[in-house]
Write the structure tokens for this entry.
Amino acid sequence: MDINEIRRQFPVLDQQVYGKPLVYLDNAATTQKPLCVIERERDYYLHENCNIHRGVHYLSQMATEAYENARRTVARFVNAKEAHEIVFTRGTTESLNLLATSLGQLLVSGTSLRGGTTKQSNLTQTKVLITAMEHHSNLVPWQQMVQLYSGELLVSPMDDNGVLDLQAYEDLLKQGPQIVAMAHVSNVLATVNPVKEMIKLAHQYGAITVVDGAQSMAHLPIDVQDLDCDFFVFSGHKMYAPMGIGGLYGKTEWLEKMPPYQFGGEMVDTVSFEKTTFNKLPFKFEAGTPNVGAALGLETAIHFIDNLDRKAVAEHEDLLVKTAMEKLSAIEGMRFIGQAPERSGLVSFIIDGIHPYDLGTIIDKMGVAVRTGHHCAEPVMTRFGIPGTVRASFAVYNTLEEVDILVKAVNRAANMLR
Amino acid sequence: MTIKEIQDSIIEDFSMFDDWMDRYAMLIEMGKECPIIDDQYRDEKHLINGCQSRVWLHAELKGGKVYFTADSDAVITKGIINLLIKVFSDQTPDDILSADLSFLDEIGLKEHLSPTRSNGLVSMVKQMMLYAEAFKSIQ
């Protein structure tokens, strides 16, 4: 695998900031886009732009076909059984809001997620189990949902290394949550959670499962049938695709039962002033005009990932993280936040006596782009008793030379700030 | 010194450095010299909410002039608040309220530490103005 060849496909990387070469290590926030993705979206607007699913004319039919092909590509990429199990959304956050809203309504309507119907008397006992390492997008929608229905949010704890306590997880399952939502990979700690095992356990206790794949899609192979998750959500922009596109995988049986999230546009079947019937899957969940151009970009991003040697990519990214940790650990006062044995894609750290904001500000001036702060996961910071971390997150195009620049920059900044 | 004179001297200090690293080094030094807020005021009420670091600010009126003390858990932020304190402390509420803030542009602070960088620069200035406004009304 030739990293320089790959880098050439990302023109944005080839620039200077403050007179220094850009070292982009904020890939967990968003990855850069390869030329093929940019050109695909551009081509769509140059030659194919049209509203879909409604026109009889040539362009509309072509655009519809392209959009549905993109859906099939996503379905294949995550190994969904059916293309209609993929709903296009704006990304992880919208997917999770859709789920929290729609599943919440399904629960209070008296439909049991365990089969059959719930008794009215049980309606107030909506319980959702999440983990202690969720980012806000996989926390707040569920929290708001259970608050709306006077339910309860259960939180599965983790240890000081950022590893979930599976015994505690099982004990919480015994309290009867209807829904379990879990990060596949933590955006702060890099922990890869044993989601397959967690899903199996959740199912044994009659809960349905939601996997947040925001941080895993670009790095790990995803097989929703093998995982047996009921739902899987992801963002395109964290996997080399454009912003504004992402998805929700759901098992057909659930998507069929769930009420729509938003109304209008092509999600309807028939409409009168008295009554509306809704379109079939997946259109029931795609109200309004979708982001067709970005969906086509997402399809191209998937082809881009497919064309890489994924095993070599994973090894390369692991080497970057490992090297960064080895070299950073020589810096006095260095403390890594998240030291799970199973990790992916990033390293989070703080240095004793130095605020992450100060460190990030100084190394930014040296051309190194990292994220500092709470990473939209404030409870994780509270858990570790810190104001935030500095996070360096990697993608396929990052190099060992960039790791060296990061380490030098952190060293110099630490000396300035001490 | 008047606010204008202090601002000019800060602009002069900053213009000595071409490199932003040196300017940061100066801000960090300023952070270390910040007149520290009394522990009794280090609470929610005195907190200015920046996104990434916490800043506490307190002010007192003595002999018709306003005196600020502050602290932050981030030293660069502390440098910025001390820079503002140097300008606005030991001044009358009227002088503070009528001060020209363009010196922030001239030393490049706005460009390099713009509000979008979440350091709370704008909130800090606003809070200082609010103190001045409050003291003016009770005078």
